[in-house]
Amino acid sequence: MEFKISKELIQEVKELIEVKNDHKLEVILNDIHHADIAEILDELDFDDATYIFKVLDSDKTAEILLELEDDLRENILSRLSPKEIAEELDELETNDAADIIAELSQEIKAEVISELQDVEHAKDIVDLLRYKEDTAGGIMHKELVKVNENWNVLTCVKEMRIQAENISRVHSIYVVDDEDRLKGRLSLKDLLTTSTKTAISDVYIRKLNYVNVDAEDVEVARIMQKYDLEAIPVVDELGRLVGRITIDDIVDVIKDEADQDYQLAAGISQDVEADDSIMELTKARLPWLVLALLGGFITVRVLGLFEGAMLEHGNLFFFTPLIAAMAGNVGVQSSAIIVQGLANDTLSGSLFNRLIKEVSLSLLNGIILASILFVGSHFFLDVEMVIGLIVTIALVSVIVIASLIGTFIPLLLDKFGIDPALATGPFITTSNDICGILIYFSIAKMILGF
Amino acid sequence: MEFKISKELIQEVKELIEVKNDHKLEVILNDIHHADIAEILDELDFDDATYIFKVLDSDKTAEILLELEDDLRENILSRLSPKEIAEELDELETNDAADIIAELSQEIKAEVISELQDVEHAKDIVDLLRYKEDTAGGIMHKELVKVNENWNVLTCVKEMRIQAENISRVHSIYVVDDEDRLKGRLSLKDLLTTSTKTAISDVYIRKLNYVNVDAEDVEVARIMQKYDLEAIPVVDELGRLVGRITIDDIVDVIKDEADQDYQLAAGISQDVEADDSIMELTKARLPWLVLALLGGFITVRVLGLFEGAMLEHGNLFFFTPLIAAMAGNVGVQSSAIIVQGLANDTLSGSLFNRLIKEVSLSLLNGIILASILFVGSHFFLDVEMVIGLIVTIALVSVIVIASLIGTFIPLLLDKFGIDPALATGPFITTSNDICGILIYFSIAKMILGF
To answer: What is the CATH code for B278-448?
Structure first.
């Protein structure tokens, strides 16, 4: 069950903008979820989108702002005054507000902050701005419910009602001491079932998961998934409760991480989307292509070494793309499996066992493929038996070597603290191309003696 | 802050198993989170792991069971009697229990079900078994809190306390009519702040998101992410409330989907892990390799067409792996960007605009790369000027064609309802190898006239 944006609706909205029928616009749009309005705005031009933005209330537009595509958001923000931007931010949760401020230029940033009305909220936002994006501090928010361990349940419920007013999802009530140090948690369910005079210190749960404010976001994601948590408190160096991370923040981290590994495997070095500008796409795509081109230079030189074979055994050269392609494909498969294993923390066993396994696996695959090649070279490719034999032997060797390179380069990178996903895609295919061709012609040279 | 398994702990556990000190084992392990115990069991042999399983209480072992690696779980279950398995399942949430039953063999399945003690629970589990794995029905659970629209808040709170006993996370209270049809929802916070005599029909929220039991799991994931939901109710064809899906179920769907796209891009056709058996890994890896090999046959034939060039312009053949590699890399980049755009629903604009953009982008990239190649071929690769010119022109053409193939094949597949991710990895590299080589030698033939 999902709202579908119809062409008629878009048309109606456009017409209402044209005749400036603000009242009707408001009536129609107030009934639509902010995520859907964001999609409607994506279909309009910048002027119309900004118009709608000014018609609607800031509690609605603030939420819409978060859902917009980056370039549309940037454009709309550039048409709002610092005061108007501050009005939007006053409506948002601290981490969302901080994310938007971080996108603003340095001079506007200061102006917007000075225009924020709610001083406590402003303090929290400024506080969040100093954490790095990919840390617990960078994804946490300040909204949480906390109670003092010295209170009783009655005080706690009263306080909680006040605090919970601005929080969409409570999950857990955190218990702190007088110094704000995290001591434990209370569940909402517990509160509903405990007598009001009970002291909090008698009922709260002392054992709880938490993360340090400097922890990496992917580490937080791993812990929350492992222990199946919907929210996790964040503490500073002194153990003081400074924020909270909820599972919906983590969904984005997990998705971004998976997308990033995929992009690296495809030879894309930055987070880009199909709708980004040509310049941005080029910046993301060119580096790995240049690397692959330089690798290509080496293959040219390597083939040059075997020029002597051209006269008598020219058709050896017909097989170079086949050998290179198989080396590349096998290498990418092996590296992808290792990179996912490292990312999901599912690799076990010793390096030696992995070596034995990878060799057996690639021998099995190699022999099956080489048999197909041997038969094919005879009946379909029409080459002399000896050439068929050479490419067959070469294919098995190349597959074994390529799968070892694909397996151990990511493991090595990981050991040195480098993202193993770098060793997928163009890097692996290029190095395997070079090795594969070298092995193939070396075997040919040994057998044919050119 | 995470529990780390030490070698000493593993050693201690092993020794306690050997001397059969069940009491001490229980004392140590009861203090450790079930997800961590699962990791400890992974380090033990099957016998020891099963031993621990029989020592601990079923409320703990049931949770451990869910966290185990597939092969260890299968092994442990095979050592338990149907009655023992049923005891584990009695402790689990309905969807987790149904997932485990689905893994059992047909004959044991029936026995296990007949041994389940809690009849209501058993009914729910059997009910879940009939839904397909990748639908809302396949990932939902039966645990939820629902109240009748005709009750008042007091009855509702009482009922809710009873129902909530078995539910770890309440999120929302669903409101149904006498026929069990979903009417709306109540928030826990609302209940805390409304007078007890109020009728439910006066306070519940009528607008809510829900999904049909047949909806695809990825679609549910998309809706929950879009509307930022922590739980969504599931209804049957008659609008009756049959289950609920929470965000932690969706995290798995999102992760699996991303992993699967990544594996397809790497030429792996099934969901495998590095620690799977050689047979499983071969089954996942061989199909695309065979396809790539057959594609390789075609490149051999294509090169054979241009044999005539070998005598005078043999060094043309040195460049085939370079051209093929660049075609493959560009194609993979383009297809990955489109596949992600389709998956994240961020593609906009007409096909014609996309064509113009892709051509401009690849021309820009192609010209930069071709310039490097032209200079390199002169100073580093040592070939005649005319050969340098040919590979330069060929590279630009090949990059443009490869990026068009990479862009439009996934779009085409998507149009026909085929997973566009199939058109990444080996499929794209292989077809681009063939096209690239054909274009390169055709240009050479035109210029050199062999």
So the answer is: 1.10.357.20
From the candidates A251, A374, A377, which should be mutated to test the interface with B, based on the most B CB atoms within 10 A?
Answer: A251
Q: Strands (DSSP E) along B39-151, which ranges? A: 145-148
List, for residues B317-327, the tens digit of each pLDDT value: 999 999 999 99
| Class of residue B173 by CB neighbours under 10 A (exposed 0-12, middle 13-18, buried 19+) | buried
**CA distances for B227 relative to A232, B116, B212, B214, B312, angstroms:** 22, 38, 16, 20, 66
Fold agreement (A7-139, A145-247):
no
Q: Which of B164, B348, B376 sits opposite A189 (nearest CB)?
A: B164
Nearest CA in chain A to B32: A207
Residues of A in contact with B248 (CB under 8 A): 228, 230, 247
- Structurally, at CATH architecture level, domain B7-138 sits in Alpha Horseshoe (1.25)
pLDDT per residue as tens digits for the range B392-429: 999 999 999 999 999 999 999 999 988 888 888 888 99
Spatial separation of the C-alpha atoms in residues B440 and B449, rounded to whole Å: 13
Q: Do B254 and A259 touch (CB under 8 A)?
A: no
Q: Which CATH architecture is the domain A145-247 placed in?
A: Roll (3.10)
Q: How far is B79 from chain A (nearest CA, A)?
A: 23
Judging contacts by C-beta atoms under 8 Å, the chain A residues touching residue B288 are: 329, 333
**B258 with A263: Cβ contact below 8 A:** no
**The pLDDT of residue A422 is above 90:** no
State how far the Cα of A115 lies from the Cα of A89, in Å rounded to an integer. 10
Binning pLDDT at 50, 70 and 90, where does residue A2 land?
low
Q: Give the amino acid at A422.
A: L
Interface A–B counts its CB contacts (< 8 A) at 327
Which of A7-16, A275-284, B191-200, B316-325 is predicted most confidently? B316-325
Going from N- to C-terminal start, the domains of chain A cover 7-139, 145-247, 278-448
Q: How far is CA B385 from the centre of its chain?
A: 51
Asked if A288 lies within 8 A of B330 by C-beta distance, the reply is no
ipTM: 0.80
Q: Which CATH superfamily is domain A7-139 in?
A: MgtE N-terminal domain-like (1.25.60.10)
